[in-house]
Amino acid sequence: MRGLYGRNAIRLSPMKEIRCGSCRKLLAKADKNAVTGKLEIKCPRCGTLNSLRPLEPIPERPGYPVHERRNKG
Questions:
Q1: pLDDT classification of 66: cutoffs 50, 70, 90
Q2: Cβ of 27: how many Cβ atoms within 10 Å?
Q3: CA 56 to chain centre
Q4: Is the pTM of this model over 0.90?
Q5: Cα(14)–Cα(29) distance, rounded to whole angstroms?
Q6: End-to-end distance of the chain based on CA atoms, in angstroms?
Q7: Quick one: which of 26, 61, 68 has its CA closest to 43?
Q8: What is the DSSP string of 3-20?
Q9: Which of 28, 33, 62, 66 sits most deeply, having the most CB atoms within 10 A of its CB?
Q10: Can you tell me the distance from the alpha carbon of 5 to that of 9, in angstroms, rounded to the nearest whole number?
Q11: What is the pLDDT of residue 54?
């Protein structure tokens, strides 16, 4: 059986596990840039509201550095 594990297999980037901050239950799996805004997930096990946001905001225009936008008066 060569299907997914053969020489021509597609290499997918590993997905990040999103777990509850209280009980560590697996809530979701997502690609690195899947969350572009604030996301809240309520844990079905313990009821904790887990808030997620991207580490770095996506710039309004690609190639336009963030520090240049802030310094314009």
A1: low
A2: 19
A3: 11
A4: no
A5: 9
A6: 63
A7: 26
A8: TTTSTT---PPPPEEEE-
A9: 28
A10: 6
A11: 80
